[in-house]
Amino acid sequence: MKYIVILADGAADLPIESLGGKTPLAYANTPEIDALAVKSEIGLAHTIPEGMKPGSDTANLAVMGYNPREYYTGRSPLEALSIGVDMASTDIAIRCNIVTLSDDDKPYEEKTIIDHSSSEISTEDAAELLTAVRKQLEWECYHFYVGTSYRHLLIWNRGQVVSLTPPHDILTRVVGEYLPEDPVLREMQKRSYDILNNHPINVERAKKGLNKANSLWFWGAGTRPALSSFYEKTGLKGVMISAVDLLKGIAVGAGMRNITVPGADGSLHTNYEGKARAAVQALLSENADFAYIHIEAPDEMGHQGSAERKVQAIEYIDKNIVGVVRREMDASGEPYRLLLMPDHPTPVAVRTHTSDPIPYMIYDSTRVVACASEYTEEAAAKTGYVYPEGYRLMEHFTEKP
């Protein structure tokens, strides 16, 4: 038996008026998912423990079968694992977004946050901007590391875990009340705007109609993580396929192998089919038992507040991941299970994550489970299958036939 997780990040949503009162999952044209739904177990899972923030970090740990209350030490330490940063026990890792603040004459505290991803800036442009920041802001206790796209890292030697606000939680708001209380972090954010706003890269971005990548934004502080081995937990040799450093870091911590797919960048137009084929190859030709295919696009479209593009992302997943995986696995004759689910909702209306339960679908090529006629939030809520502790769903998914 082979096991495949297709993680449609942030795909769950609320009914949207422009979609005829349907959610993006319900509205999207998804013939591949529909064909599996009538043969699958469909239900709800609570991936965010009560009292914890609804982040992709806690949610994906839960999906992977790790109790967030036990294993979560912060988002950024997981990303540090991904990019090979060897954290000391006294180090604090802090996520460092390059964001877009309003380009006006107002003081920094009175500026508005426009875009948490700076129009999904390329890693190459972001690395050059981070180099400019590093020259002026890096010193003995503070070290910057390049990640992917707008997502980067600050290591604070002998630091402390401080409360910081995720930028995607405060889109369109004035930033003053959300700035770091720590005076050094606060001053670095403010100085970064002076360094970046008129940098040649941002001058060119403005000419092209793209958002300027004109400020650092710190969030997600945490200490060095210690995940247990996924193989020891499940007996399965796993691979991770993701463009996001967070997921790559979880894989490193869990002892899974990361697979890099050309053109996979976490955007709406990522290499969906390449991800699907890489997973199938790992399962059928490279001795893997378990593949986790993470797709960031629905989450990003939710943060952008675009119902149309979120629907498009779901349709891409249906055609180019679910469809490809199903056809390739069926043709191989290898029995398999497929788990399709978001990690958390990212409703278009609020443009950030929520803690609501998410719909999951488990398809088993060796048997039929008929409990719903479609895979939607509404249908999942009616089946009676519910996992109040979402991290236990992985035990059920990987249990021996």
Q: Can you put this structure into words, describing what you see?
A:
By secondary structure, the protein is of the alpha/beta class. The chain has two domains: 2-73 and 226-398, Alkaline Phosphatase, subunit A (3-Layer(aba) Sandwich), CATH 3.40.720; 92-222, no CATH class. It is 36% helix and 18% strand. The protein contains 15 helices and 13 strands. Strands 9-8-10-1-11-12-2-13 form an eight-stranded mixed sheet, sandwiched between helices. Strands 3, 4, 5, 6 and 7 form a five-stranded antiparallel sheet that branches. β5 and β6 (151-156) form a beta hairpin. The chain starts with a strand and ends with a helix.
What are its keywords?
401 residues; five-stranded antiparallel beta sheet; 18% strand; 13 strands; alpha/beta; 2 domains; Alkaline Phosphatase, subunit A; eight-stranded mixed beta sheet
Give a quick summary of the entry.
This protein has 401 residues and is an alpha/beta fold. It contains 15 helices and 13 strands.
Beta-strand percent range: 15-25%
Number of β-strand runs: 13
How would you characterize the largest beta sheet?
Answer: 8 strands, mixed
Tell me the name of the CATH homologous superfamily of the largest domain: Alkaline Phosphatase, subunit A
Q: Strand sequence of the main sheet, in spatial order? A: 9-8-10-1-11-12-2-13
What letter string, H or E per element, gives the SSE order?
Answer: EHHEHHHEEHEEHHEHEHEHEHHEEHEH
C-alpha-based Rg, rounded? 21 Å
Helix count, per DSSP? Answer: 15
| CATH class category name of the largest domain | Alpha Beta
User: What is the residue-averaged pLDDT?
Assistant: 96
Span between termini: 8 Å
Number of domains: 2
CATH architecture designation of the largest domain = 3-Layer(aba) Sandwich
CATH topology of the largest domain: Alkaline Phosphatase, subunit A
Structural class: alpha/beta
Any idea what the shape is? globular
The low-confidence parts are: none
Portion of residues in helices? 25-40%
